Amino acid sequence: MDLYEAIHNRRSHRFYKPDLPPREALERVIDAGLWAPSGTNAQAWEITVLAGKAREEFVELASGAIPYMEPILEKAQIPEENRKLVKGFFKNLGGAPLVIAVTVPRGPDAEMDMAIIQSGAALVQNMLLAAHAEGLGTCWMTGVLFVEKQLLAYLGKGEQRLLAITPIGYSAKTPPVPPRKDREVRWLGF
Ligand SMILES: Cc1cc2nc3c(=O)[nH]c(=O)nc-3n(C[C@H](O)[C@H](O)[C@H](O)COP(=O)(O)O)c2cc1C
Question: Residue 143 CA: which ligand 1 atom is closest?
């Protein structure tokens, strides 16, 4: 798949089929993540893929974020219909058969901490694009960070940071294309 096509057509998927993607496709997605750049090439990220009972238990914990999100959705004046959709998604991650969690250690100082977070974000984006190229849907999620402690404890990584999670699987519904804002790019010295 052409890179620009992947960048423009990757979407956040919130409804999934229950079918498990082939292991080889998942390995390629993870490998693409691991080829992301990282500060001092530290590659300080950790990836956990959850399926079956582990996925169920993890998603149950993640749905604990819903009560924290309700006031935020209300404040943002998200229509009731959409609020229901968001809450439904957090309840079962759209029925995705797999969840990938990305965790990172805390850096020794603010600068390295930032580098570790940015590196982890690059890894996530690589995986999302690769998943799209494999015909798989994903949705970068940080809303679950309201219950970060509980999720990290489940993963046995209490001392780390949960960067993000994504459901991954075959999409069951074509998502809308959220518009992008007009770009505000300054070109200096041309
Ligand atoms: C850092 C980050 C956090 C996000 N967290 C959530 C989330 O918690 N729940 C969710 O449904 N979508 C989440 N999203 C997805 C965004 O809503 C989505 O990327 C945006 O609306 C643009 O849509 P698109 O990805 O389909 O282009 C997140 C995206 C990013 C980059």
Answer: 8
Rounded average pLDDT over 107-133? 97
Whether 180 is covered by a domain: the verdict is no
What is the average pLDDT value for the chain, to the nearest integer? 96
In a domain, 74, yes or no: yes
Map tokens 């968001």 to a residue.
Answer: 86
Which 3 state secondary structure label does DSSP give 49? strand
As for ligand 1, residues whose beta carbon falls within 6 Å of it are: 11-12, 89, 139-143, 175, 178
79 has pLDDT over 90: no
The atom number, within ligand 1, closest to the CA of 13 reads 26
DSSP line for 129-158: HHHHHTT-EE--B-GGGGGHHHHHHHHT-T
Is 57 within the bounds of a domain? yes
Domain total of the chain: 1
Average pLDDT over residues 84-109: 96
Range of the domain at 79: 16-169
Going by alpha carbons, the residue nearest to atom 4 of ligand 1 is: 141
Q: Which of the listed residues 5, 11, 12 should we mutate to test ligand 1's pocket, taking the one with most ligand atoms within 8 A of CB?
A: 12
Give me the CATH number covering residue 120.
3.40.109.10
End-to-end CA distance of the chain: 33
In a domain, 7, yes or no: no
Task: Check whether 80 has a pLDDT greater than 90.
Answer: no
